[in-house]
Amino acid sequence: MSQRYSDLMDKVYLLAMIVAGLSLLVMTIIIPIGIFSRYVLNRGESWPEPVAIICMVTFTFIGAAVSYRAGSHIAVNMLTDRLPQAIQRLCARTVDLLMLLISLVMFYYSFYLCADLWEQPVAEFPILTSGQTYLPLPVGAILLILFVVERLLFGSQENRPIVLLGNHG
């Protein structure tokens, strides 16, 4: 069971990494287009800013889940590194449980935020509603929940081959 779950999480991780990477790529392409349009063509387009913001939100929340599974998130472990091994494990378990709680709260509130704003159009980008633009929040929360549960049940996954992809040092 643990191997099947971890294999499924590998696929979810890879998909999330691709989505986060593509959103970062699109954001870095869109911003110069908006700047060029405004300052060179003297014609400020309305769509680059909301698209860039959507990409940034997507990259942030999906990318946060990816970095959590990879163990590359921001962590201050100056104190815990000096503790006995048993206390270190207890601290790590406590952090994971708190992360699960935070992810559940984030999912709850972001789900209702999306639901409440689902019909409200975005003035600068009318093909999307405000609720749709906030979808990366509950999706990122679900990914975090899945990755935290995996870590709680099966330990750290930062040494899996898919997670080490691209690490050369």
Alpha-carbon distance between the two ends: 32 Å
Main beta sheet, described? none
Radius of gyration: 19 Å
Instruction: Tell the overall outline.
Output: elongated
State the secondary-structure class: mainly alpha
- Strand tally is 0
Q: Mean pLDDT, nearest integer? A: 89
Helix content: 55-70%
Tally of alpha and pi helices: 5
Number of domain units: 1
Q: How much of the residues is beta strand, in percent?
A: under 5%
Q: pLDDT below 50 for ≥5 consecutive residues: which ranges?
A: none
> Can you write the helix and strand succession as a string?
HHHHH
Function: Part of the tripartite ATP-independent periplasmic (TRAP) transport system.
GO molecular function, one term: transmembrane transporter activity
Family: Belongs to the TRAP transporter small permease family.
Membrane topology: Multi-pass membrane protein
Describe what you observe in this structure:
- By secondary structure, the chain is an all-alpha fold.
- The chain has one domain.
- Helix content is 69%, strand content 0%.
- Helix 1 runs antiparallel to helix 5, helix 2 runs parallel beside helix 5 and helix 3 runs antiparallel to helix 5.
- The radius of gyration is 19 Å and the shape is elongated.
- The model has no long low-confidence stretch (mean pLDDT 89).
